[in-house]
């Protein structure tokens, strides 16, 4: 039995609360169990200099963790004067995941910045961020469409992410912190609603994993992402 008393193929409770920020064009509080992430999508009428004049927009992301999101206080990165390598890697992953399903030409020469701030962490902060970011981005694009800035919502698909791992020799879906810290293997799957892959991040922490184990985790991930996409559809319906 898992510490959370879930079955091996069971997700944590997942929820999306939309419109939680007054000023953001799109926002969402996403919860994967005890992991809570506040996501805000901001429209900016500007582009990075290297994109100007190309007739297309850009979607980027920033990620951060509040000091008491974790069991012990973590020093603010602003106080340290630089972002950690982990933070940079995660926010780049979020940006790539969102750009994979946006028609940037239909966005016009505009930028949408998606901020993902972890207010409580219990494993899977990057997967929760990506999944909630799609909802906030959708609402930002809907805001633009309602004001005649774009004629259609330029989303080609859904995108969501989930973790899987081998813990005590068993393949499990959606690891929380206790499981993640003790996993023999940890894999993050970023997938679209139609089943395409955006990114797969897999690491053997103790012993290498086999092709059969990877196939089992992939099957769990497809099930988990399918559920997440269904929840996204319900959230924005």
Automatic annotation (TrEMBL):
GO BP: rRNA 3'-end processing; rRNA catabolic process; tRNA processing
Chain positions recorded as phosphate binding sites: 86, 124-126
Domain Exoribonuclease phosphorolytic: 10-140, 159-224
Enzyme class (EC, first level): transferase
EC number: 2.7.7.56
Pfam family name, one: RNase_PH
Alphabetized Gene3D superfamilies for the sequence: GHMP Kinase, N-terminal domain (3.30.230.70)
Keyword terms, alphabetized: Nucleotidyltransferase, RNA-binding, rRNA processing, Transferase, tRNA processing, tRNA-binding
Record field: catalytic activity: tRNA(n+1) + phosphate = tRNA(n) + a ribonucleoside 5'-diphosphate
Single GO MF descriptor: tRNA nucleotidyltransferase activity
Family: Belongs to the RNase PH family.
Assembly and interaction partners: Homohexameric ring arranged as a trimer of dimers.
Function: Phosphorolytic 3'-5' exoribonuclease that plays an important role in tRNA 3'-end maturation. Removes nucleotide residues following the 3'-CCA terminus of tRNAs; can also add nucleotides to the ends of RNA molecules by using nucleoside diphosphates as substrates, but this may not be physiologically important. Probably plays a role in initiation of 16S rRNA degradation (leading to ribosome degradation) during starvation.
Family annotation (PANTHER family): EXOSOME COMPLEX COMPONENT, EXOSOME COMPLEX COMPONENT RRP41
Protein name, as recorded: Ribonuclease PH
Gene: rph
């Amino acid at each position: 039995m898992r510490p959370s008393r879930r079955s091996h193929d069971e997700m944590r409770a997942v929820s999306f609360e939309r419109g939680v920020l007054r000023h953001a064009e799109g926002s969402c509080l996403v919860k994967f169990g005890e992991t809570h992430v506040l996501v805000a999508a901001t429209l900016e009428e500007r582009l990075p200099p290297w994109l100007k004049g190309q007739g297309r927009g850009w979607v980027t992301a920033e990620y951060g963790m509040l000091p008491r999101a974790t069991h012990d206080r973590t020093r603010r990165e602003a106080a340290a004067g630089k972002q950690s390598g982990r933070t940079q890697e995660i926010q780049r992953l979020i940006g790539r995941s969102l750009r994979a399903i946006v028609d940037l030409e239909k966005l016009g020469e505009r930028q949408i910045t998606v901020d993902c701030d972890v207010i409580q962490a219990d494993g899977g902060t990057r997967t929760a961020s990506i999944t909630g970011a799609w909802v906030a981005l959708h609402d930002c694009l809907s805001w633009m469409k309602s004001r005649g800035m774009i004629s259609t919502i330029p989303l080609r698909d859904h995108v969501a992410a989930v973790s899987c791992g081998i813990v005590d020799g068993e393949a499990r879906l959606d690891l929380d912190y206790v499981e993640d810290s003790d996993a023999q293997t940890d894999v993050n799957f970023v997938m679209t609603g139609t089943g395409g892959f955006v990114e797969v991040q897999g690491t053997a922490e103790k012993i290498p994993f086999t092709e059969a184990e990877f196939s089992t985790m992939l099957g769990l991930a497809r099930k988990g992402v399918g559920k997440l996409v269904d929840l996204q559809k319900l959230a924005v319906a």
